[in-house]
Amino acid sequence: MSDDRASVVDMVLLILGMRVTKMIEVAATLGLADLIDEEPRRVEDLSALTGTDPVSLRRLCRALVACGVFRHDDEGRLAHNGRSRWLRRDASPSLHYISRYSGMPSTWGVWSRLEDVVREGEPAFERHFGTPYFDYMKDHPDEASIFDAHMQNSPDDRHAAVAEAYDFSDVGTVIDIGGGNGALLSAILTAYPSVRGVLFDHPDVVGKAFETFPFLEGRCELAPGDFFDAVAAGGDVYTLAQVLHDWSDERCVQILRNCRAVMHDKARLLVIDRIMDGIPDRTKALDYLTDLHMMVLFKEGRERTAEEFATLFQRAGLQPPRIMPTGSAFFIAETMVKPTS
Q: Which end of the chain has fewer CB atoms within 10 angstroms, the N or the C?
């Protein structure tokens, strides 16, 4: 009976998880983890620093402590514990940005329509907000900056993991397709000083790269464009990191064919994404949560299996992938142009 009761409590906490998500997002937005640093702080001091109501902030903090985020010291001051330290902006990895992203209006709002998606098989974002996801981001720069920071600061530091897992030592130029603000290129160029980079993405996105990563300016060329039309030529290695999971099979094949069209015979294409194995368990929960997130955001966005990637590559005229793990949840699917017979 005690086991049954414990499972009820566990289930209730899962049901109320949306409250915890919002609590952590508010704590991150207020910067509580950064303000505490190594010394516990009185809630009244934190209230003055954040411009918040002291009574409401105290109630938020005690709820966070009850959920295992932060702790109270012997004097009742708010102090760090193992979990709360990851919310600092300077933590490595930092969970500050995923906390902000998970609770911002677009993310929060679209998940309220999950039932509609399950019932009707249509994505919720455009219905809820009246515009496609990336158009929404163009019109909401505050949320777009949170999205960019979230993509740059992944909880498992996937950019550094890719640079460590793959040997770029014989590469002259890496072209990152849909590379956002340059986080992946920054990791690769930092690890391999002889490599040069080209960052290809929409003009309003790549324009932020040198501001975010100033050292790229001397080693990286910005190439604004639309990967559905064409991609930049001249690369020895092309990378597509967390791009294909946004799109339908047809759109993915279009992107891949555009990459193939500019690849020379020895050029390599690295698709960096989660790879599903079709056997859900708790150790892979993040893969399935991400897959659902793609489902609510995009009409046919989803995470894929290795076999599904192989099919996309074959349709685009590329060789079967060589799958390589990284020190993160992401895999590298390496391919080359299929030789003509």
A: C
* Runs of H (alpha helix) within 192-284: 203-206, 209-212, 249-262
Pick the catalytic residue from 96, 150, 159, 245: 245
Read off the tokens for 323: 């799958």
CA distance 38 to 57: 20
pLDDT reading at 203 higher than 70 = yes
Of 10, 8, 70, the closest CA to residue 282 belongs to 10
Contact between 327 and 164 (Cβ < 8 Å): yes
Please state at what angle helix 158-165 crosses helix 183-191, rounded to 10 degrees. 40
The pLDDT tens digits of the residues spanning 117-128 come to 999 988 899 999
Please name each of the domains of the chain with its CATH number.
2-87 (1.10.10.10), 104-151 (no CATH), 155-336 (3.40.50.150)
Average pLDDT (135-157) is 90
Q: Which of 184, 187, 183, 182 is nearest to 224 (CA)?
A: 182
Selection from 258, 269, 267, 275 nearest residue 316 by Cα: 258
For the CA atoms of 124, 127, 132, 136, what is the dihedral angle to 10 degrees?
-100
335 half-sphere exposure, CB direction, 13 A CA radius: 26
What is the rounded end-to-end Cα distance, in angstroms, of the chain? 68
Cβ neighbours for 6, distance < 8 A, ≥ 6 positions apart: none
Tell me: the pLDDT tens digits for 257-277? Answer: 999 999 999 999 999 999 998
